Amino acid sequence: xxxxxxxxxxxxxxxxxxxxxxxxxxxxxxxxxxxxxxxxxxxxxxxxxxxxxxxxxxxxxxxxxxxxxxxxxxxxxxxxxxxxxxxxxxxxxxxxxxxxxxxxxxxxxxxxxxxxxxxxxxxxxxxxxxxxxxxxxxxxxxxxxxxxxxxxxxxxx
Length: 157
What we know:
CATH class: Alpha Beta
Number of strands: 3
Largest sheet: 3 strands, antiparallel
Shape: elongated
Number of domains: 1
Radius of gyration: 33 Å
Number of helices: 2
CATH architecture: 2-Layer Sandwich
CATH superfamily: Glycoprotein, Type 4 Pilin
Helix content: 40-55%
Structural class: mainly alpha
C-alpha cells in the first residue's frame, strides 16, 4: 500500500506559522525577573524622591512666610501698626475693626493660606524674636522637632 502525503500549499504553511507567533508570550521567570528589577530600582530611587518632596514642602513654607511678612509690612505702611495677635493674619484679608487707613486685602485671593501640611500659621505680635513672629510647626504639627518635623519660622530665614 502506498501512502499519499498531502502536500501543503506555501500560503497555508505561512498562515500556521503566523498563528503560532501570535501565541508566543513571556514566561513566568521572565516576568518575575522584570518585577524584581523594578522593585530594586524603586528601593533605590523611592527614598530620594520622598526626601525631595519633604524638602520642597519646607521650602514652600519658607516662601509663604516671606510672602506673609511682606504683606504685613504693607499693612504696617498703611495703618502704622502690625495686626495684634488677636486680629491675627486674617487682618490681611479683612478690615479689622474701625481702621480707616486699611487698604487691603494684602494677600492675593483674599484668603490666608495654610502651611504646606494643611495647618494654620501661628502669628504673634509683638513677637519674641521681632516685631512679629510667624511659625509653622512642620510635618509633625508639634513645637520644636528635627528633620521634617522642624519648625519653620519668620526669624530664621
